[in-house]
Amino acid sequence: MDLKKLAVFLEENGVPAFRLKQVRDAVYKNFAASWEEISVLPSALRERLPRQFRVHTLDTLETQVSKKGNAIKFCFELKGGLKIESVLLNIMPEKWSLCVSTQAGCPVRCPFCATGRKGLKRNLSPEEISDQFLAAAHYLKVTRAQKISGVIFMGMGEPFLNYEAVSAAIKTITDPDLIGLGARHVSVSTAGHVPGIRRFAKDFPQCNLAISLQAVEDALRSDLVPLNRNYPLSQLSRALRDYITTTKRRVFVEYVMLDGVNNSRSTAARLNSWLRAVAAPKYFTVNLIPYNRTGGPYKAPARERIKIFSELLGSLGLEVTVRKSLGEDIAGACGQLAGK
Ligand code: SF4
Predict the structure, then answer these.
(1) Has residue 91 got a pLDDT over 90?
(2) What angle do CA 185, 78, 181 make, to 5 degrees?
(3) Average pLDDT of the chain?
(4) Cβ pair 208, 186 in contact under 8 A
(5) Residues lining ligand 1, Cβ inside 6 A
């Protein structure tokens, strides 16, 4: 919802200012998804507003729940007909994190990712990003009486290639007068957009940063994460060092494991050396993400090989987690979002 436009409309129509706060609280605090739900408004106003304003800037086309019930994927339609997806992930009992999209498609074109194969259609507006949160929060309230406790900018798109809109959406999500989620519960994952990392360190030092790394050699990383051709590992390494110096925060390193490509013992040792050259191991958590099928030429390593890789990094002093794949059966796992 565009609150500024709504404020102007209400003022021009002689509606008292307190009505704006009532709408704001109903939509951002209580997750009302339609004007009919905002029953504190006089009925004449409730009838007029839908002709001028939509509560959400996107329509929910489909909601899919995984067999285990721990992942819920939303397919949203944007104005103009493009489709995007968001996924709610039940990481711990009653704790839901929402993975949001920042672009329709993605220009980075990582070959292991379903979104990348579509290329970029367009950037999302700030409201189209924050409204994914509002729509998913409404769904959780109505179906389970539960709330979203974290948000991850890791859905479709490279967040720092749409920095202004992402920044405005983070402000909406963390503003105590709006959604009011703590900044420490907000994470942004980048494929390594160096100017974005530098701005993010200054603008949002309390939020979390994740890097989608996948490789620590330029040739391989440029194949797997083509943004590396613009911002090679030497630049990424400096930006991460500066980020850690400025924020004193831990960086989450996302590492999609592709069998026979980036999962050997020697690769684990090189990954460890690369991270140590950036900062002390206490500043990193390495999340190993077994590849989820997206129809490309890759496959996930066997469980045993993931274990060996993980234990090797652990023995070198790094904190390592192996990401449980939630939502693979609804194509809602990492790399699978395609807005079909
Ligand atoms: S992995 Fe991320 S950056 Fe790469 S194509 Fe997919 S959405 Fe874009």
Answers:
(1) no
(2) 15
(3) 94
(4) yes
(5) 106, 108-110, 113, 115-116, 156-158, 191, 212, 335
> What pLDDT, on the 0 to 100 scale, is given for residue 104?
96
CA of 132 to the centre of ligand 1 (A): 19
Specify the CATH number for the domain of residue 32: 1.10.150
| pTM score | 0.95
* 64 plus 13 within the same structural domain: no
- Ligand 1 centroid to residue 110 C-alpha, Å: 5
Q: Which domain holds residue 21?
A: 3-52
Asked if residue 152 and residue 133 are part of one domain, the reply reads yes
User: Taking 90 as the threshold, does the pLDDT of residue 296 lie above it?
Assistant: no
Q: Do 154 and 32 belong together in one domain?
A: no
Out of 12, 77, 85, 207, pick the active-site residue.
85
CATH number of the domain encompassing residue 269? 3.20.20.70
The answer to whether 85 is a known catalytic residue is: yes
Nearest CA to ligand 1 atom 4: 110
Indicate the number of domains in the chain: 2
